[in-house]
Design a protein that fits this description.
Blueprint (H helix, E strand, L loop, with lengths): L1 E5 L1 E2 L1 H19 L3 E5 L11 H9 L4 E3 L11 H6 L18 E5 L4 E8 L10 H14 L4 E7 L3 H10 L6 E5 L9 E2 L5 E3 L4 E4 L8 H10 L12 E10 L6 E8 L1
Parallel strand pairs: 1-3, 2-11, 3-4, 6-7, 7-8, 8-10
Antiparallel strand pairs: 1-12, 5-6, 9-10, 11-12, 12-13
Helix pairs in contact: 1-2
């Protein structure tokens, strides 16, 4: 089976680009499941229900998120009610939503886990312990294919968790830093891996933001209201070909559309 994982969707412009390219790519590449990080899909960060619905109607099956997911209160009820919009599992149990979602494809069940890194980010529960607990939960649910979106800042933390989980899950992809890394691979135990997928948004930008605004923030040290750049877009991601019987990754193909 082919699982397409898409990097952080940035604003309205990223959502529109997703809609313009995803349907054809799915058909031409026999994609069975699409996972996309949507925590920046609404203007000014965060995820609104309207943006989530746009992402779903464009062909995405499950939306993962990260440290901006609770920025918009409008999404809170959707996190509780829609099992296909998930948030990092290592937030406290009192937080809205869940960090583990399932997609039933008939011939197999895919478990998708969302975890937030703790290096340079919020001091949440340990990602390693959180992953162990949710992997056991997914397996008890009958899922052989397990995919993790590790939304983290530090490349070292991402790679460490990848090796820690090698052979225990089908694939781990990193999100959050919006720049695609050149290390798509299959780890020794059969787990597909990439440190960061990149983003779906404007190419001529600073992580999706208009360059002049990012420069102003970094140079002048004063508050700036970020706005997505208005330029040609790209969709960054990876296709993991997974044997649904063994749960191992067979091949990894990095994409830029």
């Amino acid at each position: 089976m082919n699982i397409l994982c898409i990097g952080d969707i940035c604003g309205h412009i990223g959502c529109e680009h997703l809609r313009s390219v995803l349907p054809n790519f799915k058909n031409q590449n026999h994609i069975d499941l699409v996972i996309a990080n949507g925590e920046n899909a609404s203007e000014g960060n965060g995820l609104l229900p309207t943006s989530a619905e746009h992402i779903f109607s464009s062909g995405v099956d499950i939306i993962t998120s990260g440290n901006h997911i609770f920025r918009r209160r409008e999404i809170y009820s959707m996190l509780d009610e829609n099992e296909f919009v998930i948030r990092p599992a290592n937030y406290p149990p009192s937080a809205n939503g869940r960090g583990l979602g399932y997609v039933d494809l008939g011939y197999t069940t895919v478990a998708v886990i969302n975890i937030l890194g703790v290096v340079y980010l919020e001091p949440l529960a340990c990602p390693f312990n959180t992953a162990d607990a949710l992997i056991e939960e997914a397996k008890s649910h009958g899922a052989k294919v397990i995919i993790i979106d590790f939304h983290a800042e530090a490349t070292s933390e991402k790679r460490a968790l990848g090796f820690y989980l090698d052979g225990k899950i089908s694939a781990l992809f990193g999100t959050h830093t919006h720049v695609p890394t050149a290390d798509a691979q299959i780890l020794p135990g059969g787990t597909g891996y990439i440190t960061d997928l990149g983003m779906t948004g404007p190419i001529q930008s600073v992580l999706g933001v208009s360059p002049e605004l990012a420069i102003s923030k970094l140079k002048d040290k004063l508050p700036v209201r970020f706005k997505n750049a208005d330029s040609k877009c790209s969709l960054n991601g990876c296709v993991f070909e997974v044997d649904h019987k063994t749960g191992k990754t067979i091949s990894v193909c990095q994409i830029n559309i």
